[in-house]
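Collaborator request, handled under Task 6.
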Amino acid sequence: MTELRVTADNETCVTSSLCVFRLPQVFDQDAEGRVVVLDPNPPAELRRDLLRARRGCPTRSIRVEGEGVPQEEPLG
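Structure tokens returned to the collaborator:
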């Protein structure tokens, strides 16, 4: 299985904390409550949970890349 790459835009984060709740081993929050990526290359077995976290982010601030990872749906 290929390596996953996770990034997050803390400028667009609205501090919903859903990503931290779902994957505390990958995401955390800074002093202002904005998303911080703890593990930018998480294990492949977290793929499904990462895609759920990405989908659940109200501002689409989470990016998940890697072979076979579907493109994210546009807001709207």
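The cover message to the collaborator said: "Residues 5-65 form a domain with the Alpha-Beta Plaits fold (CATH 3.30.70.20). The longest strand covers residues 5-8. Please let us know whether this matches your experimental observations."
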